[in-house]
Amino acid sequence: MAAEVRTTCPYCGVGCGVLAKVAADGSVSVRGDPDHPANAGKLCSKGSALGETLGLDGRLLSPEIGGRAAGWDEALDLVAKKFSDTIAAHGPDSVGFYVSGQLLTEDYYVANKLMKGFIGCGNIDTNSRLCMASSVAGHRRAFGEDIVPGTYEDFEEADLVVLVGSNTAWCHPVLYQRLLAARTKRGTRIAVVDPRRTATGEDCDLFLPIRPGTDVLLFNGLLAHLVRRGALDADYIAAHTNGFDAATTLAAADAPTVARVAEGCGLDPADVRRLYDWFAATPRTVTVYSQGVNQSAHGTDKVNAIINCHLATGRIGKPGMGPFSVTGQPNAMGGREVGGLANQLAAHMGFEDSAAIDRVGRFWNAPAVARKPGLKAVDLFEAAADGRVRALWIMGTNPAVSMPDAARVRAALKACDFVVVSDVVRTDTTRFADVLLPAAGWGEKDGTVTNSERRISRQRPFAPLPGDVRPDWWIITEVARRMGFAEAFDYATPAAIFREHAALSAFENDGARLFDIGGLADIDDDDYAGFQPMHWPLRAGRGARADRLAGDGKFPTPDGRARFVAVRQEGPALPVDGAFPIALTTGRIRDQWHTMTRTGLVPRLMAHAPEPAIEINPADAAAIGLREGDLARVESRYGSGRAKVRLTDAQRIGQAFLPMHWSGRFAANAAAGPLSTPVTDPFSGQPELKHVPVRIARE
Ligand code: SF4
C-alpha cells in the first residue's frame, strides 16, 4: 500500500499540512495532516479537493517556441541568448521577471539571485504585489523589517479579535475555524470591519460595515480614543517606540470625535464607540488584516494606523496580542524572505542600506549586484508596454487576467520583444509567450513554503514529473548557467538552494536582523527531506524557536525602537462620480482560487458558484432597473464585463462586489482584473483593487 506523503496545501496563506496518497490506479486522495501545527488535520473545501485537480488536462508537457514543440536545450539556449543580447544592447534594466506566490522559496531564491545579483537589476516582482505589499511596507515603516510578530496561537489566546477587510471565513477557512473553536472555549469576542457583510461578518459580535477606504479614519479615531481614555502603555511607549506625539497629534486632528469618525466611515456611532471601548479594555487583542486593507491606494497608511494602536497599548509580541497580516498565497511570505519583491534585496534586507547591498553582493560573489529597487508589478508591465522592458519572463502567474487594467497588460505582452512564460497549464497569459516552459505543479514540486505566521513547511512530491516538465528552480538555474553564471548556480537539489538561503540570512548578522534561519544553513539532505514545520527566527538551531519576534520590545530599526507613523485619512485614488457612480470591490469566493486554472476543474467546487455574480444592494438595483438574475454589464474606465445580478443587503448602497476569479478561459464574463484601476499605493506599489468606480446597466 502506498505511503502517505506529508506536504503543504498550495492555496492560501494558512499553509495547512496535507497528507497525500497515490492509489494503484494513479488517483490521489488527500487528508489534513493531524501533526501540522497550522491545521491539526483540518482542510477546507479547496484543500480537500486537491486530489481532483491533478489530471493532465491542459497541462504544458514540453517546451514550445513560437507555438511549436521544442527540446529543453533549444528553448533554454534561446531564453538565455535573448536575455543576454537584450542586456548587452539595452542594459540590465531592459529585462524583468514577474513571478508568483505559488513558487517555492527555492525557486524564488534563484530567480532573485539571478536578477539582482548577476543581471544586476531589481526588476523582479511578484503577484504578491497585488496581495500584501502594503503590509510589507507598513511593517518596514513601523518595525524596520518586514516581520509578523504574531502567531496563529495568538488568535486562540486573544479575548478580542478584530478582523479588518478580511473575509477569513472564506479566504482563510481553517484559521477561521481555529478562531471559532477558541471563541467557544474562552468566549473570544469577534469584531468585523468590512464594507460587505461577508460570511465572516454574519457570525460575529460586532459588525462595522465601513465605507470603503476609510480605515485610517477608524483607527486614527481609535488611537485618539485610547489617548483620551488614558488606555495607553506609557512605559512601553517610552522604552520601545518613537514618534508617538506626531502620530497622536495627527490622529486627534483627523478623527477628533467618535461622531466625526462614524460620519466619515458611514457607521453607527454606537458601534464605533463599542469597538473602541472593547479595544481599550481588552489587553489580549489581535487585529487581523488582509486584502481589504492592503489593496488600496492608501494601504500602507491603513496598516500603520492599525499598528499605531498596538504600539500605543504595548500589545505586540506577546501572547494573544498584536497586529497580524494574513497573506493570500501559500508562499507570499517565502517570497518576501528571499527578496522576491522589486524593492527588497534578499533575506529581508533593503536597498536603502548600502552596507546591506554590499553584504549580499559579497555573499553571492555577485558580479553586478543591483543597487536600486526595480519596477513594481504595475510599473513593470507599463515599462513593457512602452519599450523600456524588452524581455520579460513570467513564472507561475496569469497577469493577462489578474493584473489591474489587464487590457493594458495584454497590450504590453504583445508589444514586448521577447516574452517567456513558465507555467503548469495554459492560461490567458501563455498565449503571449514566445517561449513556453512547462513547469512542475503541486504534487511534483519539491521545496519549502512559509505561511502567514512565518512557519516554514515542506512541499513534497508524490507524483513523477509528467512529459518534459521540470521544476522552476531547475529551469531558472539552467538559464543562469547558459548566461555565463554556471558556478554561482551549480545546485543539484532544492536542499542545496535552501542551505544557501539560510546561510545568507545569517551572513554577517549579529542578531540585529530578525529574519535569521542560520540554524538551518547546515541542514543535510536527510533532515531537509524530513523537515518538520518551524517558525523563524531559527538562529538557535533546528527544532527550537529562538524567541517570539519583538517579545522583548526590540525591533530591527537602527535604534531598536518601533516607529509610530503619523497618517491621515485620504480618499480613494479614483472617487465615484456621475459617470461611474458605484464603488466596486473585488475578492475571493469560498471555493475558487485565483483565475481558477485548478479549482475550476472540480465540479463540486464549481457548484458553489457556477458563474460570476455581481452583488448589489436592492436599492441600487431598483434605481438601475435590474432584477435578481438579470445579466448586467459592468463597466469601469479600464474595461467591461458581464455578470449575473445578485441582490443582497449585505452590500452597502452605492457599492458592488465582483469575484476576482473568472476569466475569458471560462466565458466572456466579468473578471475583476480587467476592470480594476492601476492606481497604486505610493509606498507599496499595491493597486487599488478594492475601490473601482463602475457603472452597471442591464445587458
Ligand atoms: Fe489550503 Fe488555505 Fe484551505 Fe488550508 S485553509 S486547506 S491552506 S486553502
UniProtKB/TrEMBL annotation:
<feature type="domain" description="4Fe-4S Mo/W bis-MGD-type">
    <location>
        <begin position="2"/>
        <end position="58"/>
    </location>
</feature>
<dbReference type="GO" id="GO:0046872">
    <property type="term" value="F:metal ion binding"/>
</dbReference>
<keyword id="KW-0534">Nitrate assimilation</keyword>
<dbReference type="GO" id="GO:0043546">
    <property type="term" value="F:molybdopterin cofactor binding"/>
</dbReference>
<dbReference type="GO" id="GO:0016491">
    <property type="term" value="F:oxidoreductase activity"/>
</dbReference>
<protein>
    <submittedName>
        <fullName>Nitrate reductase</fullName>
    </submittedName>
</protein>
<dbReference type="GO" id="GO:1990204">
    <property type="term" value="C:oxidoreductase complex"/>
</dbReference>
<dbReference type="GO" id="GO:0016020">
    <property type="term" value="C:membrane"/>
</dbReference>
<dbReference type="GO" id="GO:0042128">
    <property type="term" value="P:nitrate assimilation"/>
</dbReference>
<keyword id="KW-0560">Oxidoreductase</keyword>
<dbReference type="GO" id="GO:0008299">
    <property type="term" value="P:isoprenoid biosynthetic process"/>
</dbReference>
<keyword id="KW-0411">Iron-sulfur</keyword>
<keyword id="KW-0408">Iron</keyword>
<dbReference type="GO" id="GO:0045333">
    <property type="term" value="P:cellular respiration"/>
</dbReference>
<keyword id="KW-0500">Molybdenum</keyword>
<keyword id="KW-0004">4Fe-4S</keyword>
<dbReference type="GO" id="GO:0051539">
    <property type="term" value="F:4 iron, 4 sulfur cluster binding"/>
</dbReference>
<keyword id="KW-0479">Metal-binding</keyword>
<comment type="similarity">
    <text>Belongs to the prokaryotic molybdopterin-containing oxidoreductase family. NasA/NapA/NarB subfamily.</text>
</comment>
